[in-house]
Structure formats: structure tokens, C-alpha cells
Amino acid sequence: MKKLAFSVLALCCALLFLSFTVQQDNPDAIVGSWKNGEGTGVIQIYKNGDKYQGKIIWLKEPNDPETGKPKLDKNHPDKENHNRPVMGLTNMWGFKYTDKNEWTGGKIYDPKNGKTYSCKMSLDGNNKLKVRGYIGVSMIGRTDNWTRQ
């Protein structure tokens, strides 16, 4: 009887571990809506071909306080983009799933300062996304923790 109980327990543990491993090794796990760490925006991450990208779908302050009109991408280095709205802007692109819940090789654009950074992302559980923007090497950068919406 003890052998049977131990065998059932071992089987349950193995199945639990396997289901956790399968769930954690899902390239599409980042697809969805994510609120940035400041709580000022929500980015919709979606698959485009074999890569992942994101666009801004919600802003806490969608309108320019001076004009009352929708915020524009006025800090972009290319003046031709100064009239495009921030809402709906694709601000993340080029991410590929590597393994171990990491998406690398992407870029992230910050409309607040008009700068584009190299970026990688990793899931921390199902509802937390670590987004690391950096210049050059990943060690020199900043990580923002996003929450699934």
C-alpha cells in the first residue's frame, strides 16, 4: 500500500512538473495587454510573422495638456513623425522567442524622449513581464516590470 501511495504521489509530482514546464515554454505566453510599471500606458503585444511586437493601446493621459488634442510623437528624432499620434503607435518590434521564457533581439521606442533602445523580455510567472531596455550591452540599462491586464 505504501508503494502504491508513493507511486501515485511521484506520478502526480511528475505531471505537475511537466505541465509547469510545458506552460513555461510557450512562445506566445507574452501575447496580451500589459500595463507598464508607471501605470501610465498599456501595450498590446502580438505576434507578427515569427516575431513579436507591441503597440500602445491605452494612455492614462491620452491628450496633450496644452492643446487638449491627442498626444503626438513630438519627440521623435525624425520630424516627419511629429504629427503621428502616440495612441496606436507600434513601440516594440523584432522580438524572437529564444527559450527559457525569454524574448530577445527586439527594440523598444520611448515616445517620452524619442529614443529607441535594444530590448529583451522575460516572463516572471504568468502575469509579470520584465522588460529590459539597454544601449549596447544588457548590463547597462533599465528593467521595467509590467503587469498583465
From TrEMBL:
Where does this protein have compositionally biased stretches of type Basic and acidic residues?
A: 61-83
* Signal peptide start-end: 1-24
Q: Name one Pfam family in it.
A: DUF2147
- The region called Disordered is annotated at 61-85
**Which of UniProt's keywords are assigned here?**
Signal
**Alphabetized InterPro entries for the sequence:** DUF2147 (IPR019223)
Highest taxon in the source lineage: Bacteria
Cite the DUF2147 domain residue spans from the record.
32-148
The name of this protein is Uncharacterized protein (DUF2147 family)
Q: Which organism is it from?
A: Lacibacter cauensis
